[in-house]
Amino acid sequence: MSRDTHPGVQCPHCHSHLALVPVPGNNAPAAVPAPPPTPPSTAPPAAVSAQVSVPPVTAKEEWQPPPVAEVLAAYAGRVKDSATAMRGAARVRDSLNRARTAAAQRRAAQRTARRTPKSA
User: Fold this and answer.
1) pLDDT of res. 9
2) Where is the composition biased (Pro residues) (predicted)?
3) Phi, psi at 55, each rounded to 5°
4) Among 7, 22, 66, 109, fewest CB within 10 Å belongs to which?
5) For the CA atoms of the chain, what is the radius of gyration?
6) Is residue 13's pLDDT more than 90?
7) Between the CA of residue 50 and those of 18, 45, 53, 103, what are the distances in Å?
8) pLDDT of 72-114, one tens digit each?
9) Residue 32: CB partners within 8 Å, gap ≥ 6?
């Protein structure tokens, strides 16, 4: 069976073929059920068909965020409090400035550590 005619599923991102196989020792229900055991027969082994049926696989829907209007509807009746907004903006600015300063200090320390000491 070639990869082009394989009836399995494909990765939605890279479109590579995926094979669903049961994991040995796993107690969870298998995605692909094992074939039912065949009763012992008197027929030679060559007469046993090697065809395995593949159950239909439903594609999983990818999660999408809710619409923006639906999210913002909860805030529609609010009154803007400018004093609170100014305090919040100041806190965000301070936090960003602290992060920027810490990153600059970290880069300077790494730059200093990379320099090899010059011997006399």
Assistant:
1) 74
2) 32-43
3) -70, 155
4) 66
5) 31
6) no
7) 21, 10, 10, 63
8) 888 888 888 899 999 999 999 999 999 999 999 999 999 999 9
9) 20, 21, 22, 54, 55
DSSP codes, the chain? --STT--SEE-TTT--EE---PPTT--SPPSSPPPPPPPP-SS-GGGS---------PPPPPP-PPPHHHHHGGGTTPPP-HHHHHHHHHHHHHHHHHHHHHHHHHHHHHHHHHSPPPP-
Q: What is the pTM of this model?
A: 0.35
Phi, psi dihedrals of residue 25, rounded to the nearest 5°: 85, 0
Task: State the CB neighbour count (10 A cutoff) for residue 9.
Answer: 16
Neighbour count for residue 32 (Cβ, 10 Å): 15
Task: Kindly state the greatest CA–CA separation across the chain.
Answer: 92
